Automatic annotation (TrEMBL):
It comes from Streptomyces griseoloalbus. The keyword Protease applies. The keyword Ribonucleoprotein does not apply. GO terms for cellular component: plasma membrane. This is Zn-dependent protease. It is a multi-pass membrane protein. It comes from the Bacteria.
Length: 264
């Protein structure tokens, strides 16, 4: 019933997204075949484009779940087209996360789609809408790590393996950060419907600063170390060694020159 009230054009995949998807495919092929004269550039473009694709799918998951939960306004807002330019804050949702990948190899959560919560009934639906985004990152991480935990790396070029490992790291960090029960992040959105009205009103003023708070904490060496210890543990459980993610990040930062340790 909800989908019937959206026009076909509201659900048509955006050419912008298809273009980003094409860049991902072409640069992934160049990384796999060694076609690129500078493999670092190909890896940089492949990981960046794939990361933006995952950000678009993250926000689409929020919007699509909201649509089926009662918020029919998401179609008119362009959220179902996967066009990153339709997001509420394109800077926060696309540009800033990409910059954080370049600066620190962290999958920074984006916050982009505006859901009209008043149209939605039921606490479980509200929680599911918030959880849909980071669950997409979890699914993306499973896809990226599948060749590792399936022991299907025979014949996979080293550069592509490194790039895939680094992309998996970004998805794992994004999922963990998004699921933190901090106001302004999806994790808080999952538990918010179950909190009392008084608690929600008290916490509401801090929501715009939740991401900044998490970012500041990650600058604390002890917190940063503990965070990446958890990330490394999860990746090892999925078959990815720290060497692969390290070399993937080094290859991604091609402007730093060759790295003899990784053989690149």
């Amino acid at each position: 019933m909800t989908t019937a009230t959206t026009r076909p054009s509201d659900r048509r995949i955006s050419p912008v997204f298809l273009g980003i998807l094409a860049v991902t495919a072409v640069t992934g092929w160049a990384t796999w075949t060694g076609f690129a004269e500078q493999p670092g550039v190909a890896v940089f473009l492949f990981v960046t484009a794939a990361w933006i694709v995952s950000l678009c799918l993250h926000e689409y998951a929020h919007a699509r779940t909201a649509l089926h939960s009662g918020d029919i306004s998401v179609g008119a807002k362009g959220y179902l087209t996967l066009n990153p330019m339709k997001y509420t804050h394109a800077l926060l949702s696309i540009v800033l996360p990409v910059l954080f990948v370049i600066m620190g190899g962290i999958g920074l959560p984006g916050g982009a789609v505006f859901i009209e919560r008043g149209r939605i009934r039921g606490r479980w639906r509200h929680s599911l809408i918030s959880a849909a985004g980071p669950l997409t990152n979890v699914l993306f991480a499973v896809v990226c790590t599948a060749p590792f935990w399936l022991d299907a790396l025979d014949g996979v070029p080293a550069d592509f393996r490194f790039a895939l490992a680094f992309l998996a790291l970004l998805q794992v960090t994004a999922a963990i950060l998004n699921f933190l029960p901090v106001p302004g992040l999806d994790g808080y959105g999952v538990i918010e419907p179950w909190l009392s009205y008084t608690v929600r009103r008290q916490v509401e003023p801090f929501a715009p600063f939740g991401l900044l708070f998490v970012f500041a904490l990650l600058w604390v060496p002890a917190v940063n170390g503990a965070f990446f210890d958890v990330v490394d543990w999860l990746l090892k459980a999925l078959g990815i060694h720290e060497f692969d993610t390290y070399c993937g990040y080094e290859l991604f930062r091609f402007w730093r020159g060759e790295n003899e340790f990784c053989g690149i």
